[in-house]
Fold this sequence. Notes:
The protein has 66 residues and is mainly alpha-helical. It contains 3 helices and no strands. The model has no long low-confidence stretch (mean pLDDT 85).
Amino acid sequence: MNTGNMSSKEIIKDLLLRLPDEVSLHQIAQEIEFIVAVRQVMAELDRGESVTVEQLEKELPSWIMR
């Protein structure tokens, strides 16, 4: 899915439609946090800001669902 032209609200609506009905609020929150983190990195790249492998390795564990 290309979310580049979607509003934040549209992205969350799409997420909720794709998740199973029995998903917990905690799992929803984790999914949203992941989306936010990815969008922040993409925005940094769009602005020409570099992201080092070390930074990604440090942040990645917090992005992965538990």
